[in-house]
Amino acid sequence: MKKTLILLTILTCFFNCKVTEKPQFIKVENIKVLESTSRFITVTADAFFLNPNSIGGQLKTDGIKVIVNNNELAAVTSESFKVPARKEFSIPLQAKIPTDSLLSNKNLSSLLGSFLSKKMTVQYLGEIKYKVLGFSHTYQVDRTEDVKIKL
User: Fold this and answer.
1) With contact defined as beta carbons under 8 Å apart, do 51 and 41 qualify?
2) Among the residues of the chain, which ranges form H helices?
3) Closest Cα to residue 124, out of 16, 58, 50, 43?
4) How many angstroms separate the CA atoms of 35 and 82, rounded?
């Protein structure tokens, strides 16, 4: 009797749990300069999702490029993020841009323009990958914002 009850509980949970729906990618927001030093400028953003599934999964963000003033300067690198079940959540997208890459010959005119306008254009471009129980999905990210810089 106990084995039958356990088996019925497992089967009920298995058939009533949503697993194959992908989390909904909502938006990328809050692009800003978190920190700037003589060696690096740290740029952050938040990617928002809604997971309708009864179980979580994993998100990987390693394919996202950071483009500043139309020049690819860095990439988001991070560990996998755990996706909570049946919940709206956000993951941080952070990249460190070496200041010497900003000062290269091809970036000098855009850098000068940024200093004069006290703004720089930051674009996140790439893919976020979601995986759960053999099911996977890729989200395209393409978000651009003008970010104020402090001199």
Assistant:
1) no
2) 2-16, 99-102, 108-117
3) 43
4) 26
List the structure tokens of 14.
């298995």
- Tens digits of residue pLDDT in 12-26: 544 455 555 778 889
Task: State the Cα–Cα distance between residues 60 and 138, nearest whole angstrom.
Answer: 10
Which residue, chain included where needed, has tokens 């938006």?
27
> What residues of the chain score a pLDDT lower than 50?
7-8, 11, 13-15
Q: Which residues pair with 91 in a beta bridge?
A: 47
pLDDT tens digits, residue range 85-113? 889 999 888 888 887 776 665 555 555 55
Token pair for 32: 């800003």
Q: What tokens were used for 13?
A: 């949970």
Using the structure block, give the residue that is written with the tokens 């998100």: 59
**Which amino acid, one-letter code, is at 14?**
F
Distances (CA, A) of 18 to 5, 13, 42, 100, 135: 22, 10, 38, 48, 12
| DSSP code of residue 63 | T
HEC sequence for 67-106 = EECCEEEEECCCCCEEECCCEEEEEEEEEEEEHHHHCCHH
